[in-house]
Structures are given as structure tokens and as C-alpha cells.
Amino acid sequence: MAGSWLIAIAIAIVVSGEALAQYGVRPGGEALARLATPGTRAVALFFVASDCPISDRTFPEMKRLREEFSGRGVAFWFVYPNTGESLQSMKQHLSAFGAGSEAVLDQAGALVALAHARVTPEAAVLVRNGAAWRSVYTGRIDNRYVRLGVERPQATEHSVEQVVREVLEQRPVQKAVGNPVGCAIVNPKAPALDTEDAKQ
Predict the structure, then answer these.
(1) Residues 6 or more apart whose Cβ sits within 8 Å of residue 182
(2) CA-to-CA distance for 189 and 200, rounded, in angstroms?
(3) Which of 33, 98, 113, 182 is within CB 3.0–4.6 Å of 189 for a Cys-Cys bond?
(4) What b-and-e string marks burial along 68-103, b requiring 16 or more CB atoms within 10 Å of the CB?
(5) In the beta sheet, which residues pair with residue 78?
(6) C-alpha count within 13 angstroms, C-beta hemisphere, residue 184
(7) Distance CA 17, CA 160 (A)
């Protein structure tokens, strides 16, 4: 009897795929074990920070994308990747921008490592790879920022929107031209930055 019970648990873990995965901590203090429910077609991660002005100024675009695609099989998460971030600072930041509670504190760097994110703001788009997730895109959200200190009045290219549409339409994902511009992620799991991506 006990053996059958253990087998059932093992099957449940394999089927769910993410049952044992720990991606970080939700605003309420609970661990995030799953990025999406079955049937979700893609996951979009927005790497943000409570002390990054470029991240702050990009929030309206991130929220717009969530509103446009969340009803079409795409799950969205605001990821706070810096080791110095806290639950309190994350919750205050989310509240200030009316961003809701779909957020995760990633101090251990699980999502940073999965996406190879380097700066805030930066985005990653994930698709299912068997029982796990793989990144098909990590890069800038749009081209509003040319480099640190130089920005366009408004973006002329919307990279994440393009990638999400390509995934939903089952077309090849095009890589963005240009690096994301913002504040360096302070987490041991973050890749090294190019010189132009250095934190302000």
C-alpha cells in the first residue's frame, strides 16, 4: 500500500513538471512552485527593481502587454531579481505602480539563471519544453532607451510584443537588435554585463 502511494506521488510530480520547482517567493510570502497552469502557451517574465528609474518608466508598457495578452494563454510575472530586494520593498513597489500581485522575489536567482537576465528592465519569454520551460527570448522590452542617458520620446519597436505574437502564431522568434538598457541585476546568477549596459 505504501509503495503504491509513493508511486502515485512520483507520477504526480512527473506529470506536473514543476511540482518541485521553487522559483522564488510571492508577495504574500509563499513559495512560487509553478509559473503557469496547464494549457498556458507562454510565460513572460519582466525583470524589474524597486530602485531602478528606467525600470519604473517602463512599467506602463509592461502592464499594457499583460493586459493585451494575459487572456490569450500567456502568463506574466514581475520578477525582482536583486539579492538586496525584500518582500516589503517589492510589495510597496507593486502597489505604487498598481501592478497587482503576479510577482516573485528571486533572490536565489532561479529565474535569472533560467532566462540569463542581466538588467532591469529586461524581459524573457518562455515556452514549454516537455515538463519544463525554456527561454526563446531574453532582451529588451522595446527600443525606447538607446543607451544610458539617451531615450526616444516613445518606442518605435516593441520587441516583447513581437515575440509573444510570434509564439502565439507559431512563427520563428526573431531576435531583438540592440541590448537592453537599464540597471545591472545584482545577483550571483546574473551573466556579466557588456560595458554599455553598466548600471547608472
Answers:
(1) 52, 54, 55, 119, 120, 121, 122, 145, 197
(2) 20
(3) 113
(4) ebeeeebbbbbbbbbbebeeebbbebbeebebeebb
(5) 46, 103
(6) 15
(7) 26
> What percent helix, strand, coil does the chain show, rounded to 5?
30, 20, 45
- Written as one letter, the residue type at 154 is Q
Task: Give me the helices (H) in the chain, please.
Answer: 2-16, 53-69, 87-96, 110-115, 159-168
Taken in order 159, 185, 102, 129, the sign of the CA dihedral is positive
pTM assigned to the model: 0.85
Give the CATH fold of the 23-197 domain.
Glutaredoxin (3.40.30)
Give the domain ranges of the chain. Answer: 23-197
pLDDT of residue 12: 36
pLDDT in tens, the chain (200 residues): 444 433 333 333 333 444 446 899 999 999 999 999 989 999 999 999 999 999 999 999 999 999 999 999 999 999 999 999 999 999 999 999 999 999 999 999 999 999 999 999 999 999 998 888 999 999 999 988 888 887 888 877 889 999 999 999 999 997 766 789 999 999 999 988 764 444 33
Q: For cell 514549454, what's the residue?
A: 128
